[in-house]
Write a structure and sequence with these properties.
The protein is α/β, with parallel strands linked by helices and 384 residues long. The chain has 14 helices and 13 strands. The structure holds pyridoxal-5'-phosphate (PLP).
Length: 384
Amino acid sequence: MISKKIKHISPSVTLAISAKAKSLKKQGVDVINFAAGEPDFDTPDYIKQAAIEAIKGGFTKYTPATGMQELKEAICEKFRRDNALVYAPDQIAVSCGAKHSLYNLLQVLCEEGDEVIIPSPYWLSYPEMIKLAGARPVIAKTDKKTFTIKVEEFRRCITKKTRAIIINSPSNPTGAVYSKDTLEKIAELAVSRNIPVISDEIYEKLIYDKLNHISIASLNKKIYELTFVVNGVSKSYAMTGWRIGYLAGRPEVVKGVAVLQSHSTSNPSSISQAAALTAIGSDDTSTRKMSEEFEKRRDVLMEGLKNIKGIECAKPQGAFYCFADVSGTGMDGLTFSKKLLDEKHIAIIPGEPFGLKDHVRLSFATSIDDIKKGIERLGEWVEQ
Ligand SMILES: Cc1ncc(COP(=O)(O)O)c(C=O)c1O
């Protein structure tokens, strides 16, 4: 009954573990959740209010398939303000989350048998989306300890079939932030081989140690023309449930996304678009507060992990994850996470679906108290 296309796609492990942790919690078990893939903050009230007003004002009908003009204009203004990037509204497509933007983009760019390069560790949806677009994921390894991109690895992966390179900074699952130098090298390579770059910048505003986010598209005119920037409101404004993401790039590709969207989902929810318009146009005070809190939590988590033998972890500089090597405990990531949930009720995500089986992903989208409690439990358990 089920098509081959779907049979070869893995279900999302993150969602499955989060669901198990939630169900244990419901049964009254004291679960420490290091598995979350979303901010544990609530959507700010002023954004909720915009949605309430949209409902009351009757803004409850279809909009253009890739979003209303006003929102596209606000997104152009955001790119100008935050990233020094100039786009026109016909270069923007709004979709039901950045995941949807990435999915549609790959469908529009890829032919059957094409190859798309992704650095490993990668966000676990990239390979599956690439396969769903009929293409093949090609994995470029990063430094195993620091997760730094090696541009030579990208070069080695390029063939005649290469259709795109996906980059993701700050990264899920490692929290690594690409340096300007690395971005310049990737840009130089992409331009010299005329390969489009898909730059997933969804964690742009969750960045620490006084670093500034740099969009690869802003480096020069040539890479600007080859880049598709993907972003959204999910992580920056704690709006994961509202489902608004967007992409920016060449108008002809954006038009292709519009055609696809017009025959599949149509527009993202009009009410969520109204809320996103307010979020994107706001002064980001709530985002900054959330980011500062994440930075504090990161420090507590890293300090705690440092003292646990057998676990090694590079310091994340963005997003809300760290990606720890647990091979020193004698377990692989999958065994480690399964046992930890069963025996100590700590939920973490195994590294295998992100490309490294000796690793696990810990999310610090949880309270400082829980981080401290979790670290203590984890330390005792590993010691045993
Ligand atoms: C790297 C990365 N890209 C994209 C997304 C999708 O975000 P959205 O909620 O906007 O679909 C996520 C969500 O976890 C992510 O981690």
